[in-house]
Amino acid sequence: MPLTQEQKKQYKSIGHHLKPVLTVADNGLTEGVLAELERALSDHELIKIKLNILERESRLEAIAQLCKAGKADLVQVIGKMALIYRKNAKVNKQLSNVHRFN
User: Fold this and answer.
1) 3-class SS shares of the chain: helix, strand, coil, % to 5
2) DSSP category for residue 1
3) Long-range CB contact pairs, 88-95, < 8 A, 24+
4) Where is each CRM domain found (predicted)?
5) pLDDT tens for the chain, residues 1 to 102
6) Shortest CA distance to 92 belongs to which of 49, 48, 31, 44?
7) Are 65 and 84 in contact (CB under 8 A)?
């Protein structure tokens, strides 16, 4: 289910204070990147990703692939940073960025 505008607004305000937990380079989505994406989304629900890709179209394509691979929703893209969210059924309130900032 897509995020509502109110949810996006809330997640953007939380994401503003986050540091990137995942960096994607020109070599794309390797197994290591996908494994780290899965771990980060499971632990934190809301994560910031830095994309070290020069071309804008390539960055947007990589973001779409990350969202699809992680079954996550895109919250925001600013320059080379993306903020994505995936709800976790078994949330750890100590690790979840959403629950820690509420």
Assistant:
1) 45, 20, 35
2) -
3) 88/41, 88/42, 88/45, 91/45, 92/43, 95/43, 95/44
4) 1-97
5) 689 999 999 999 999 999 999 999 988 788 999 999 999 999 999 999 999 999 999 999 999 999 999 999 999 999 999 999 999 888 888 888 888 887
6) 44
7) no
Q: What is the pLDDT of residue 27?
A: 82
Please tell me the predicted confidence (pLDDT) of residue 39: 94
- Beta strand 46-51 with 81-85: parallel, antiparallel or unpaired? antiparallel
Question: Which structural domains are found in the chain, ordered by start?
Answer: 5-85 (3.30.110.60)
What does the alpha-carbon distance between residue 8 and residue 11 come to, in Å, rounded to a whole number? Answer: 5
* Residue 12 identity (one-letter amino acid): K
Q: Strands of 1-102 (E only): list them.
A: 22-24, 46-51, 73-78, 81-85
CB 55 within 8 A of CB 63: no
